[in-house]
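In response to reviewer comment 3 from the previous cycle, which asked for concrete evidence that the modeling workflow produces usable outputs, we include below a single protein chain processed end to end. The sequence was submitted unchanged, and the resulting structure tokens are shown without manual editing.
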Amino acid sequence: LKVFDSAEEAAAAHRAGLLRLFMLQFRDQVKYFDKNIPGLSQMAMQYMALGSNDDLKRQIVDLTFARACLGEPLPATPEAFTARCAEARARLGLVMQEVCRLVGTVLDEWQAVSKKLPAFKAHAAAMADIEAQLKRLLGKHFVVATPFERLQHYPRYLKAVAVRLDKLKANPARDAQLMAEYGPLWSNYERRALQLAKMGASDPQIEQFRWLLEELRVSLYAQELRTPVPVSVKRLQKQ
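The workflow returned the following structure tokens.
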């Protein structure tokens, strides 16, 4: 037992501890997955700019077990833990395939965008904005650090960047105008997020707003890709 400063911290540590218990319980499956991740060599090559083969492998295995074992409500008794193990055992292989499919698609889209970028060196402001966005989305630990429901939208976010680049060629002035509309909203979010981080606090609303800003980018630069919720500069200013 350990005391934490906040309920959020405690919940995160508890989930990590539970994940460890499940993985100890499934030792043989962990060993098997370590050697049999579908498409790992291709993904590891694309991921190379972010980290090593082992970094990627560890995250894929961790995410697979988290998806299979850590559904709400979390098990709170030995009996519930045993029951969850039985449920998870049947699903692990399918979950692993689902995770690999998604991570593979994200890395494919990221590589496609990265290949396009060098041709746009003349558009310095847009390039800086896009590179900062990609850096935020795809850090070394993006597979486990991104909430899974958001990770599922990554292929669309990255496609939107590619669409933006195509449109940038035709109309750089429009891109600059959209950037000017988006910029203040991002600055406001960043300032608030920084304040919270300094206080060691977290706010689900701020976190949600951060992802709405990602949707806003899709809406502004690649409207044809659609957003799951209605977003606009006005709506987000109000919020």
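The chain has a mean pLDDT of 95. We consider this sufficient to address the reviewer's concern, and the full set will be provided in the supplementary archive.
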